[in-house]
Amino acid sequence: MSAVASPQVLRVSGPTATVTHDDAIFEARIDPRTPGRPLVVGDRVEWRVVGDERVIMAILPRQTLLERAHGLDGPRRPIVANADLLMIVESLHSPPPRPTLIDRYLVAGHVGQLTPVIVLTKSDLADAAVRDPLVELYRSLGFEVHVGCAKEEAFVEELRATIDGRVAALVGQSGVGKSTLTRRLTGVDRAVGAVSDLIGGRHTTSDPRQIPLIGGGWVVDTAGVRSLFLPPLDMEDVGDAYPEVREGRANCRFRDCRHLDDAGCAVNPLFSPSRRESYRILATGP
């Protein structure tokens, strides 16, 4: 998926997009009649060339899609298209880890068909009593977990090897070290930006950008969040995102069970307290 056959969007900036094609980078105008808008980072597109101007006319089918919602009942908002990996970056210290946010991203990745990778940063400052249970929990559920410090070259190389030439979307709350990881992986300072260097133009810290990695592959640098609202979800899809539910629901003796607090539910005993709470919120609302 990381090979660019059709023109691919690296950044969207209002009515224009920065697009890569055949190892070159162009600025293209987005036709306001383009079906399937809004255009997002990672989209593969069709365009027409008129003189020196390139005009995006169509969005090709998306293989994966990371979406969020505007508020509790807000509309869907696509964030990143066609990424292979969802790298969920969480801090072990200042800010403290938020397992419920990790869980929301795991659901969003599952629904959007991205492979999740949990990246726990600031391990040099972490208390083992905080770090070890978190690592053990998610690894025991079958998730890939990496633990380290963004300033350690070995940790950066470990993540680069994990990406392995693919496209990884980096997501997480503000202050977890995501921008530092992006800079170490790509050699690019987010405040300047590889795309901005090449073509100039407007750039803000909230603009997702797809940036080439040193040695191959790409990362999509996204802005930090305080919370993650998910679009309306089918509870079957939510359950599929939880290994505990997948494991236990076949043995649940209740028809149409939501696997919450019902006595005798086969899923309930499989949940850790934090995972039960994150599932409950998604199943019933806050």
TL;DR?
By secondary structure, the protein is α/β, with parallel strands linked by helices. Helices cover 27% and strands 26% of the residues. The strands form 3 sheets. A 6-stranded mixed sheet has the order 10-9-8-11-13-12, with helices on both faces. Strands 1-2-3-5-4 form a 5-stranded mixed sheet.
Computed CA radius of gyration, to the nearest angstrom: 20 Å
Mean pLDDT: 88
* Count of DSSP H/I helices: 8
Q: Into which percent range does the helicity of residues fall?
A: 25-40%
Mass-distribution shape: globular
Low-confidence stretches: 191-205
How large a portion of the residues is in β-strands, by DSSP E? 25-35%
Strand order of the largest sheet: 10-9-8-11-13-12
The overall strand count is 13
* Major sheet description: 6 strands, mixed
Q: Please trace the helix and strand order, writing H or E for each element.
A: EEEEEEEEHEHEHEHHEEHHH
Structure class: alpha/beta
- Termini Cα gap: 37 Å
Write the layout of secondary structure elements.
Elements: E1 8-13, E2 16-21, E3 24-30, E4 45-50, E5 53-59, E6 65-69, E7 76-81, E8 85-91, H1 99-112, E9 115-121, H2 128-140, E10 144-147, H3 153-163, E11 167-171, H4 178-186, H5 194-199, E12 209-212, E13 218-221, H6 235-241, H7 243-248, H8 273-284
